[in-house]
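Researcher: I'm preparing a figure for a lab meeting and need a structural model of a single chain. I don't have an experimental structure, so a prediction will have to do for now. The sequence is pasted below. Please return the structure as tokens so I can convert it later.
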Amino acid sequence: MVVNGYHFWRADRNNKGGGVAAYLRSDIAGDRKPDFEFQDIESISIEIILNQKKWLILGAYKPPCMSNDTFQLNCMTTLDKCSSKYDNYILLGDLNFDLLDNAKCSPLNDIMDVFDLSSMVKKPTCFTKHGQPSLLDVILTSSKNMFGKVCNFNCVLSDVNHMIAFQLKFQVTRLNGAHIDLLRILMLICLTWICNQTCLNLNIMM
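Model: Understood. Here is the structure written out token by token.
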């Protein structure tokens, strides 16, 4: 699980496998923040500093069997703490609410309304053999104006789930003093399902 040049954090489910993990490139300032993780939802929170701004990245997995009341209570408690400390935060992961079906995603929509979160993924991310395509894997943010391109693409790591990735926009200064308004690819965050484990990969490529 260790990759040279990356910090690695993990939140294991139990001795039968599963859980959530995060990689952060070692030259990016960041650290895990357990106080901003959910109590009952599998999650891992990473604070990163980009262009002197703090961002909280909260990766999560909600099992289909979790009740809507438990989900909403967890979200209200944790996101209230996040919004009180961070102007910029992102909640992403497989929350098992289909955002393409209003009848099935009302608990998540209620949370988005309360905290004024925007959903950045617009197309299906889950493709099963016997069901309609669904949008279960989300990127929700308090700072939609900081987002550039959002990618949603098939990969060889899963025959069911797509990967999701996005760009963030801000101004950086090179060593020669020149300014760049938008990095070509600023941040890649991929959610991959391997042995029922979600992996959050934070990477900046100049």
